[in-house]
Amino acid sequence: MNLPSSSSVRDLDAVVAGLSVVDVIGLPVDLRRPPKPGGMQSIASITMTTGGNVPNVGIDLAKLGFRVGAVTRVGNDTFGGFLRSQLEMHGIASAGLVLDDTRQTSSTIVGVEKNGERTFFHARGCMANFRVEDLLTHMDVIRRGRILVFGYYGLLPECDRHLGRLFRAIHLKTGIPVLLDTAGAPRRDDTLLASFLPLVDYFLPSYDEAAVITGETTPARIVAALTDAGAPGVIGVKLGADGCYLSWRGKAKRIPARKVRSVVDATGAGDAFVAGFVAGLITGADPFAAAALGNAVAASSLSAVGASTAIRPVKEYRRS
Q1: Which domains does the chain have, with CATH numbers?
Q2: Fewest Cβ atoms closer than 10 Å to its Cβ: which of 192, 211, 297, 304?
Q3: pLDDT per residue over 208-221, tens digit each?
Q4: Which pLDDT belongs to residue 319?
Q5: Are the C-beta atoms of residues 82 and 107 closer than 8 Å to each other?
Q6: Angle CA(284)–CA(72)–CA(294) in degrees, nearest 5?
Q7: Strands 118-123 and 107-112: what pairing?
Q8: Distance CA 145, CA 181 (A)
Q9: For the chain, what is the mean pLDDT?
């Protein structure tokens, strides 16, 4: 599906909706040999940053050079103030932010091992109150964009059975395409998948999640299963260090990953891929070229602590 023109009312390149989190990242953490009860283990650094697809993809796209709006929910607390300030600092339109006075901002403690592998301790907080109505009541924000990026299927269970209703309304009221991302532990539910997948224009889950929701174990068979479930557009699988596998208009390709000299922190690498992929689409690339850009942006995100720290303007990736 082609993205709408950037002229006139399309004053945002993308709208990112769904999960927002504050991450407290410690590294390096050796979870295989934790300190004894009551003891302490010294580590090199502790960093507070944003997490979840809304800040990660949103800030990545802003740093790449695009205009972004956000629809999400934050608590009326210190973490919520930090999250809002980070979005505003990067110029992300915040008219779609819902301030929740009843629960804390969603937060995660992230332990990063020497090899970049991560372990998460998560408090859902106000994201347990997030509903598709948060988007439906901010359709004025969504229709300003050229594409909606929603995430995550698997971490917003209250929204899952309503995704078909949401995506149908977005297509009818805005005419923009939908990219759906996954995370966490989406369950296998063929009926649920078939209720919304025909309304998703871009669906590129990570391998582990794709294997669970389809019951298949190879990228080609996963894509075939998603096609059979009704996926009408661009579908594929994010494969981490092996790049990604993508199907579009009857053609399938494996797009190789960019080489990374040293992995510092893998937090947000999947979101960085999505940001790079969307950046490619916005600038007129076909999905295969957009996926290659996504791989390049994801590779750079691995080189620094935090999901968005190392992201550069999009023109620098095109030169590399």
Answers
A1: 14-31+44-315 (3.40.1190.20)
A2: 304
A3: 999 999 999 999 99
A4: 66
A5: no
A6: 30
A7: antiparallel
A8: 18
A9: 93
Amino acid sitting at position 70: A
Q: What does each C-alpha distance from 59 to 235, 237, 295 come to in angstroms?
A: 24, 23, 17
Tokens found for residue 208: 């582990």
Calculate Rg over the CA atoms of the chain.
19
Give dist(CA 315, CA 299) in Å, integer.
16
